[in-house]
Amino acid sequence: MEIASPRVQGPAAAPPARRPGSVRRTSTILMTWPDGILSGVRLTGRGRDLHTLPDGTAQVLRQDEIVAHASPDRTIQWVTSNPSVPGLSRLAGARAGGRLRGALDEAVPGLRTEGAPMYLLLDDLAGASLIAGFIWSRWHDRLPDLSQPRSVLAPRTMQGICSGFQPGASSLNPDGTMSGIPQHNTEVPPLADPTDPLGWHELDSPPEMAMRRARRIDVYPHDGRLVLDAMFRDSCWEPGGREIAVHEYQLHATTNPAGSELASVLAVARVLPYDECPLAAPNVERLVGAPLAGLRSEVLVRLPGILGCTHLNDALRALAEVPILAAAMVGVSPRAHQGHGG
Predict the structure, then answer these.
(1) Coil, strand or helix: which one is 101?
(2) Number of domains in the chain
(3) What is the C-alpha to C-alpha distance for residues 21 and 52, in angstroms, rounded to an integer?
């Protein structure tokens, strides 16, 4: 059965201009393989909160950094952070999958409620380590070692996990395993706007073989409500240096006057791997009325299985810290400091 799907709109050309009186959170996780493709993935994360004051000047509220290494089966071997987080070493041995959030709550209790970029980076280890496998499709001919793990991995039933893997999807065989059709992708423009050096935190130059997960969340007041403009992109550098995206979404949302609940939300599908993936975008309206601070759990409840998209759900969950970001617009947050640059 053929499934009709909304069309994707292509990658965003550039981030919007920063508005006076706004707060912008940006985060990236760079995925590299410094010890070889069979030795696991190195995940280097950086996140920053930037307050643009009414007069247009900007202040770094906080910048956090992590470096982690995950084995090919996505087990976290070690992780470090700047600034240092007590107890973070207890994540070693945890698998960067669906149970990572429980491991985070045990290892670093209270970090989630603090709402700093650090938690977003650590939470993103699950998704980043998952999509890192996309590198195989672009570099397989250059790395003969890749043929070995592909030949021994047992096919996995994916049906029902998300909109892209719903029954009848082009991505699946009749038995629910992946069909192996090529994933859609497209070349993307640079992440940052060269006319605004402060628009993103410092972006590391990638090695030849690398992937990157990037997020941006803008929060600003308008007509007595908060307006949210967010984006998410997973990209990969191909042999020859071309950067392509396999996932990209944009989110537009507003809150109630109190700034505590979602009053409206729109998801724009920009780049997605399968024809059925964009079917998740209209379902985000199920989140209207949800408490912002509870989005990390509400998204999973209201957009389960084929109603959602793993990556879109993560983008929506990342809005849970919006109330903390908004607090900086009425005065400098108590956790504000000069950061580590940017």
Answers:
(1) helix
(2) 1
(3) 5
Q: Which residues of 325-339 are buried (b: 16+ CB within 10 A; e: fewer)?
A: bbbbbeeebeeeeeb
SS (H, E, C) 256-274: CCCCCEEEEEEEEEEECCC
Cβ neighbours, 10 Å, residue 241: 8
Domain of 98 in residue numbering reads as 22-330
Residues whose CB falls within 8 Å of the CB of residue 102, separated by 6 or more in sequence, listed in order:
none
Whether residue 139 is contained in a domain is answered as yes
Q: What type of residue is 131?
A: I
Count of CB atoms within 10 A of residue 294's CB?
A: 13
Report how far residue 179's alpha carbon sits from residue 174's, in angstroms, rounded to the nearest whole number: 9
Phi and psi for 28 in degrees, rounded to 5?
Answer: -140, 150
From the CA atom positions of the chain, what is the Rg in Å? Answer: 19
pLDDT digits (tens, 9 = 90+) for 205-259: 999 999 999 999 999 999 999 999 999 999 999 999 999 999 999 999 999 999 9
The C-alpha atoms of residue 168 and residue 172 are separated, in whole angstroms, by: 7
Percentage of residues in the chain having pLDDT higher than 70: 91
For residue 330, the model assigns a pLDDT of 67
Q: Which two tokens stand for residue 193?
A: 């706007």
Query: Is 195 a residue whose pLDDT tops 80?
Result: yes
Position 14 in a domain: no
What count of other Cβ atoms lies within 10 Å of the Cβ of residue 74? 20
**Using an 8 Å Cβ cutoff, are 111 and 104 in contact?**
yes
Residue 11 maps to a domain: no
- Report how far residue 229's alpha carbon sits from residue 269's, in angstroms, rounded to the nearest whole number: 14
- What rounded mean pLDDT belongs to the chain? 90
**pLDDT for 74-109, tens place per residue?**
999 999 999 999 999 999 999 998 789 899 999 999
**Does the residue 175 lie in any domain?**
yes
User: Can you give the three-state secondary structure of 165-203, one letter per residue?
Assistant: HCCCCCCECCCCEECCCCCCCEECCCCCCCCCCCCCCCC
Residue 68 burial (CB < 10 Å; 0-12/13-18/19+)?
buried
What is this structure's pTM?
0.91
